[in-house]
Amino acid sequence: MRIIIAGAGELGRLLAFTLSTADHDVTIIDADGGMLEHINDNMDIKVVEGSCVSIRTLKDAGVKNADALLAVSGDEAANILSCQLAAKLGVRKTVCRVNSPDCFSESDGVTPDKLGIWKCVSPSEECVGKIRSVLRNRLLVEKIRFSNPDAVMEVFRVTPSSLLAGTRVKDIPTDSGLLNSVRFAAIVRQKQFLIPHGDTIFVPGDKVYIAGSNRDVNNFIAWISEESISVQASRIVIAGATATGKLLASALCTAGYDIRFVEKNQQKGEKLLDTLPPGVLVINGDPTDEEVLEEAGIRDCEGFVGAAQDDEDNILSCIMAKRLGAKKTVAVTSKPEYIRIVPTMDMIDCGFSTTLTAVNSILRMLESGTMRIDAFLQMFHARLTEFRVSNSSPLCGKELAACNLPSSTLLALAFRKDEIFAPSGNTVFQPGDTVVAVVTPDVERELEPLFPEK
Description:
alpha/beta; globular; Alpha-Beta Plaits; Rossmann fold; six-stranded parallel β-sheet; 4 domains; single chain
């Protein structure tokens, strides 16, 4: 695809790197010449200096031949106008980064499509969805969804009390009826990425990627846990009056959680009291200060979320909160360099990048041909990719064991109409099947010829 990216900030740069690595023709626009020079020195993509709301700049970037425009700058108004202009100039797929839904009003007829916007993405909303999914369960680290709405991959931590601790994969009792309906896709152990097999032994501290239907995965995680994992209506402490922090607080209040908010800027803290639901306790202070965290009730809280503007503050406050007794800590970051670092830190249970969640959402929007990228695994150069089986695929009509796939290929799930199943050696793929694989860029290039479009 020929793709123009408007905005060379953290989101724009990560998108440019990801899409160019996947062999797309990428051009990036920004008014900051110094930023573009840095990009030009480190990436093999075209850069155009200028305003993304300038028709001349858009034409210089090749807008008339572009398949998609991704307006992802930090200026919401500029993103909307850039999409409008690009749509008028013939771009069919325009993606607009927005910070809040207040830009649109369906009742007044002001909708994204009326403004030339094909799809919207909100990094904060995407991140809040991720955080909410892991806060509902002490064991969960991450939740990933696919094109099939009933399919899911969840990442959970093996605890010392878990039935899995010290157990080999092939020794898991089959009388539970659950093992045949889920697939262990990967294990992260001591910063190493492992592909599990029958003789793999689960050890406390492992982060296990498990895939299947929502019901089967939830039932399996409940079965392996001897402790109560439901945290509904528990206390959650949130630090940082950012868009992410405020959206999360509102959502959790609606769900019945007891919310305590820490904000070191007094003016922002006072505004919170006017915007958040009644009953939220707002504490003015630094979330990296032990006394402030104590005042927020950190020792009795189920979870602590560092969602401030400063990534380093979020990391440090999570470490402090964990040391003081928070059962689960979640750090929100935006700098791409933290994507692989934060999930490896022992005192931080979950690390989410607003930048990465937005990238993953946009990649899903841009699905084309027989491939669809679902998510980049945060700690490693691996990703979840869906491949569609066509009539001309070499895999079609053959047993999987006879297909000679690359040795490092891991097929996590398969979809056939409404059916979700874990592929095995005797699985025979049919036209229209969708296969989910955990792949590195090299393996993905090897698999592409096996999934032609027709």
